[in-house]
What does this fold into?
Amino acid sequence: MPYATKQRQAVLEALARRGDRPASARSLTEDLRAKGFPVGLATVYRQLDRLAETGQAHKVAAGGGTLYQYCAHPAAEEGCLLLRCHRCGRVEHLECVRLHGLYSHLAEEHDFQVDLSQTVLTGLCGPCAREEAGYGER
It folds into this structure.
């Protein structure tokens, strides 16, 4: 684990406070400045890239750019498969042993190695799917 600077720790904590809501580098910079931590946008990007390299954060491609999300289990050797709701933006980590069969199948039958550090499935989360179906309205 690389040396954790005060800046990296501050960025990590700001990201962790968001839970399963990804954040842009710009919004994290604004959050840090509002809390009295003077930091530049370039510094936040640099720290987010380092956090992503160590598995402490995920980079999530979004329509308008890149978002980042805290990873609560960076030591997971299998990596993280992420589920992103395209409606509300929530991102969830998926840990399911059944997926290992899929990864093995793709490697053995299709000569393809899944990069879990960049794998995001996009769709609708349960609450958004129910709301779109009319079950969430009252």
Q: What stands out?
A: The mean pLDDT is 85. The domain at 6-132 is CATH 1.10.10.10 (Arc Repressor Mutant, subunit A).
